[in-house]
Design a protein that fits this description.
This protein is mostly helical. 32% of the residues are buried. It has one domain (4-148): Protein tyrosine phosphatase superfamily (Protein-Tyrosine Phosphatase, Chain A, Alpha-Beta Complex). The chain is globular, with a radius of gyration of 14 Å. The protein has helices at residues 4-16, 29-40, 45-55, 63-72, 75-88, 95-102, 114-119, 133-142. α3 (45-55) packs across α6 (95-102). It contains 8 helices and no strands.
Length: 149
């Protein structure tokens, strides 16, 4: 949890500059991605994790990391969100809409097909990728050798 703010800022800066960021760790990479998405949306850790599992089914933070995410939710996530906005300005991305589109029916709207997911893109700006954030995460994991997954 003590590294969330630094990791979130780094990931956000990479995205704003049109780049990607590989988050890798033996046990904490999913936790860092969930914390980032919580910071740039108003979604709970469980909602974000459910959405991530639609593109990465093996995502499963251990109980200690889940507790850290629960503690990060609410006030801490709002504080980081506010700091990101102060430092980088209004986000050009539609992260909350993209994440909600991945949730099952009844959670935050209708589930989308793969084709519909690909249609969700951030607002156009300079050199940014038009591929939704979690789909880029999925593609990044797809190119990692099986022995490292």
């Amino acid at each position: 949890k003590r590294h969330f703010k630094e990791c979130i800022s780094f990931i956000h800066q990479c995205r704003l500059h049109g780049g990607n960021c590989l988050v890798h760790c033996l046990a904490g990479s999913t936790t860092v991605v969930v914390a980032y998405v919580m910071a740039v949306t108003e979604l709970s850790s469980q909602e974000v994790l459910d959405a991530i599992r639609t593109v990465r089914p093996v995502a499963n933070p251990n109980p200690g990391f889940r507790q850290q995410l629960t503690e990060f939710g609410g006030v801490a996530a709002r504080k980081v969100r506010r700091q990101l906005k102060q430092r980088y300005g209004t986000s050009p991305f539609n992260d909350e809409e993209e994440i909600k589109a991945l949730l099952p029916v009844g959670r935050a709207g209708p589930a989308r097909t793969e084709g519909a997911r690909q249609g969700l893109v951030p607002r156009a700006r300079d050199r940014r990728s038009t591929t939704p954030f979690l789909l880029r995460v999925k593609r990044t994991f797809s190119c990692i050798p099986t022995c490292l997954k």
